[in-house]
Amino acid sequence: IYDRHVCYRNKNLFNINEKNEGKRKHTTSSIFPNPLIGKGCIYLNLDTNVPINAAIYNAQGRLIAKFQSLVLAKGKYEFPFDFSYISAGVYFIEIISGNVKLIQKFVLLK
Questions:
Q1: 3 state SS of 4
Q2: Which of 7, 9, 82, 83 could form a disulfide with 41 if both were Cys (CB 3.0 to 4.6 A apart)?
Q3: C-alpha separations of 9 from 41, 61, 77, 104 in Å
Q4: Phi and psi at residue 42, in whole multiples of 5°?
Q5: What does the pLDDT average to over 46-62?
Q6: Mean pLDDT of 27-34
Q7: Where would I find the beta strands (DSSP E) of 21-86?
Q8: Whole-angstrom distance, CA of residue 35 vs CA of residue 40
Q9: Mean pLDDT for the chain overall
Q10: Please, which residues have CB within 8 angstroms of residue 90's CB and are 6 or more apart in sequence?
């Protein structure tokens, strides 16, 4: 069971902008805390309705986890995640949102 108190607003968002059909789409993503011990949150802020795909890779580029593809409406999302089954180390989370690919490095401590 995940303790939701670990998830709270993160002010350090990873930002990428994309121009699409004359309109500006904005997607933000972050993982918090970073570094983390066991449990953390993946935050998304979407300005448009888009399909989302996410995966976690280790420092060698090996796929560690792949998340179910979702179609999300415009808005803010918070996904609590238990990282305790993964060994300590440096990892990358990749979030693909429409034509935007977000990659963020995070450190997992034990």
A1: helix
A2: 7
A3: 10, 29, 11, 17
A4: -105, 120
A5: 90
A6: 73
A7: 23-32, 36-37, 39-46, 50-58, 63-72, 75-82
A8: 9
A9: 76
A10: 58, 59, 105, 106, 107, 108
Which string of b and e fits 23-62 if b means at least 16 CB within 10 Å? eebebbbbbbeeebeebbbbbbbbbbebebebebbeeeee
> How would residue 28 be classed by pLDDT, with cut points 50, 70 and 90?
low
Q: How far is CA 50 from CA 64, 93, 104, in A?
A: 24, 18, 19
| Residue bearing tokens 């121009």 | 19
Report which of residues 102 and 5 the model is more confident about: 102
Q: What is the pLDDT of residues 76-92, one digit of tens each?
A: 888 888 888 889 999 99
Confidence of residue 24 (pLDDT cuts 50, 70, 90): very low
pTM of the model: 0.72
Query: Distances from the Cα of 27 to the Cαs of 6, 22, 42, 83, 106, in angstroms?
Result: 23, 16, 13, 24, 19
